[in-house]
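Q: Can I see a sequence and its folded structure?
A: Here is a first one.
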Amino acid sequence: MPNYQGVWSLSTQYQNASAWPQPFPTSIGVFFGSYVSEINTTINFINLASAGNALSFGSLTTAKRNNGGFGSTTRGVTGGGYTGPTNVIEFITFATKSDTSDFGDLSVARGYPSGSSNNTRGLFSGGYGSNFSDVIDYVTIASEGNATDFGNLSVARYGSSSLASPTRSVTGGGVDSSARSNVMDYVTIGSTGNASDFGDLVAAREYSSAGASETRGLFMGGVASTVYYNNIEYITIGSTGNTTDFGDLSSARGAGAGCSSNTIAVFAGGTTSGGYVNTIDQVTISSTGNATDFGDLLAAGGQMSSASNCHGGVQ
């Protein structure tokens, strides 16, 4: 596993409330933590209704990377990750610019879990602690407390990405104990139980990012060893089957963070063959085509988690 040393904090140039958009946006995406050469606590914020550069929302209580995240209409939640690994779950209230507050703990400390949710329940799927994990934990987003066992992924793995409709969560890709995976599996969020096979990604890879409307899900980018992908693929969440080509990112990269409204999906930051970037790409979920520029993160970085208050799972 990599060496996770070092912590830094971003400039406070955006901490003054006067720097914030007025009136405060209602379609919010946030990106928790980041990594370039050191781990940081920064929470980036974007207005998903209008392209533009990110602003600072606040800070995590502890610097971390490779965490999982999801959101309801009111709260963004992030858990796990590496300073690590850690079992800490934290949350923010989208309508209030602030640092995170303690939510509870995962059932197992681990980095690299993927996050997904509907408006009521959030899931942390897979990860890596002392070994490859197939654990799916869940929380009730409106109520702080420790995570509860939901079931298991079909394959223990880390570095997957997850997306959700109001009823289903789909998890794709990652690294298992023997190889990189192209497996997608799904669960019904309102129940508990083990995941079922959904289909396959076009290519086996880890550190892709995901976003979804209430009907269509996208998997964007990813890494396999030293190969970086610009693929954007889509699925119809209510059915099962392999992904279909959607288009391409502006550059081949992985280890960024994806989030969405019910209309657009964005891929923020990540690493390319030349290093970390601050690029935010966007696509319109209901169509197909290549990504266009949305704006920039506060700083180049990757290995962060994300949440929004208007994604397809909360519709």
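Q: Show me another, different protein.
A: A second, unrelated one:
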Amino acid sequence: MHIYIGVVWYKNPHEDREFWIRGALNAIEGARNTRFSIVEVDNSEANFGSQEAVRELGPGVPLLSLSSYGNIGFGAGHNRLMSSAFLEGADFYIGVNPDGAFHRQSLSRLIPRLAAEPSNLYEMRQFPTEHPKHYSPDTGETLWVSGAAFAMSKTSWETIGGFDEAFFMYCEDVDLSWRFRLRGNKCITVADSLYYHNAANRKSSPLIQQRFLLSGLVLGKKYGIDTLVQRCEAELVSMGVPLNAVASDMKLPAELIEKFDPRIYFSSDFSFSPVRWSL
């Protein structure tokens, strides 16, 4: 089995990168009988046309650095990495946030689940601040998978595709998960596979809120969730953000949405799932 680990950087300090790399190598060392490669792209500034660089991070662990188009967004960045990984022969792709790190046993716990049911979409459980959305304690099944630490197979990528690049940031993971479920596949939280992602004290900002709302608008229009569209439009107008026709031609066919109606998962927030505790 050959697994590629992909990470999209954006203005991350050098020490954070080194911390992430050490964590990845520790987790790889604990996952036997699996071949790993790491692929990265830095969205901080465009260097399109430069040579792709390859170097060894550790014994048998190559790092491929792709040339950058600039800040094209989270989903678009991972799409480039997934495409490169699968074209290079990866069986699975694990995509993670750069502001985190692998637990040393995370990959050894995740890989058996990937091998057993490769058609599913998987997520590692975040710590110390766990995402509050519900998942089954018995099967791990959940309503959507977070893009902070996800995994999918080459077969799924060929069938379902990657992220919808209409989402610059936020909600692209919800959309990908719902497309998996529309095809009858499952979204699974692997509870004993941990990824450090400490977002507990992260401050919000008007720009982040705008990006949440713009992505919510795309998601609402695509899936016909009128209450979500109305809320996002109203809040964007109140913030002075001009509305346009984004996603107006993206709505999925009604007969497809009827197979899995995501409208029931939106009430008044962006959880898109029952939560296990209040934030």
